[in-house]
């Protein structure tokens, strides 16, 4: 009974996450009307509120404060709950197999709060004037979200969103955490998923003040989150992660400084074919 309940919780959480992710795409791209409606006039309004449309009109200063507050709540939820110490604390109170689903559920709820309470700031900063410019804007937007989704599968999509953990407890198999891997895009940059988000946030054919606030504050949060995440990874993987960090740039491909002999002094680099399991239970 308890096993089935945890499995059901994980499945429902995954469905909620996926719907929230789809809403995030529509929210960020204003897939409600705007530019897309010019191309596809019969496109139904996909979402009632987006970064630029449908939100409560609010004076500028209040809108900025509310919006930054929403991003701060998002950042705090993500960063606090992703720390090894917090995970250990949570596991003393909840079944370990449900921990990731709880994180994913809360992350989705915090995003829903942001969608609901976001205040548009409609001043136009830039807009692509030509069809080619608009197409490039949409390509960056779509490519960014595509990169996010692809990166989740390169790491381990079902582990990141808690499904693997609830399934393994259901079939009575011990849970082991997912491996540290560096396939494809992870050889070009250390954070392709975050790079995808940054491209998606800044892509699209137009940019308003509100959209720039959304993109800018989340980009700043991503840069902070990378610091925390890398600190944990270096703690878990030691020299292996430090050597990876030397070889592969953070977000911009082909910008790593050349690897020098002295960089490898005292460092033992594990072969890429032998991933280390990231310990989720510390
Ligand atoms: C939302 S994912 C983002 C992954 C990565 N920062 C990126 O942008 O592609 C965060 C989780 O992925 C894990 N992670 C980061 N790099 C990884 C890698 N190369 N292989 C496996 N897991 C990784 C982190 O430990 C963390 O639990």
Automatic annotation (TrEMBL):
Entry's transmembrane regions: 61-80, 101-118, 138-163
One of the Pfam families matching this protein, by short name: NnrU
Molecular functions (GO terms): methyltransferase activity
The keyword GTP-binding is assigned to this record: no
Catalyses which reaction(s): methanethiol + S-adenosyl-L-methionine = dimethyl sulfide + S-adenosyl-L-homocysteine + H(+)
UniProt superkingdom: Bacteria
Topology class, membrane: Multi-pass membrane protein
GO CC list: membrane
Places the protein is found: Membrane
PANTHER family in the record: NURIM (PTHR31040)
Name this protein carries in UniProt: methanethiol S-methyltransferase
């Amino acid at each position: 009974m308890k096993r089935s309940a945890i499995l059901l919780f994980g499945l429902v959480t995954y469905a909620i996450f996926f719907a929230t992710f789809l809403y995030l795409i529509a929210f960020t791209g204003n897939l409600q009307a705007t530019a897309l409606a010019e191309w596809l006039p019969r496109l139904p309004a996909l979402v009632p509120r987006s970064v630029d449309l449908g939100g409560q009109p609010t004076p500028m200063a209040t809108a900025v404060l509310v919006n930054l507050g929403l991003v701060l709540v998002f950042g705090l939820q993500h960063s606090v709950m992703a720390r090894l110490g917090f995970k250990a604390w949570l596991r003393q109170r909840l079944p370990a197999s449900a921990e990731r689903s709880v994180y994913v559920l809360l992350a989705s709820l915090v995003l829903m709060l942001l969608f609901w309470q976001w205040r548009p700031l409609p001043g136009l900063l830039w807009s692509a004037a030509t069809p080619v410019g608009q197409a490039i804007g949409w390509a960056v937007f779509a490519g960014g979200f595509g990169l996010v989704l692809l990166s989740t599968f390169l790491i381990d999509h079902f582990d990141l969103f808690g499904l693997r953990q609830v399934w393994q407890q259901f079939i009575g198999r011990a849970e082991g955490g997912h491996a540290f891997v560096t396939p494809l895009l992870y050889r070009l940059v250390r954070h392709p998923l975050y790079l995808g988000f940054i491209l998606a946030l800044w892509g699209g054919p137009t940019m308003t003040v509100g959209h720039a606030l959304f993109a800018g504050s989340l980009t700043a949060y991503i840069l902070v989150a990378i610091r925390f995440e890398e600190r944990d990874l270096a703690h878990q993987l030691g020299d292996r992660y430090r050597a990876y960090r030397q070889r592969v740039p953070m977000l911009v491909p082909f910008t790593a400084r050349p690897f020098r002999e002295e960089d490898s002094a005292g460092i033992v680099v594990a072969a890429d074919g032998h991933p280390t399991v990231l310990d989720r239970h510390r």
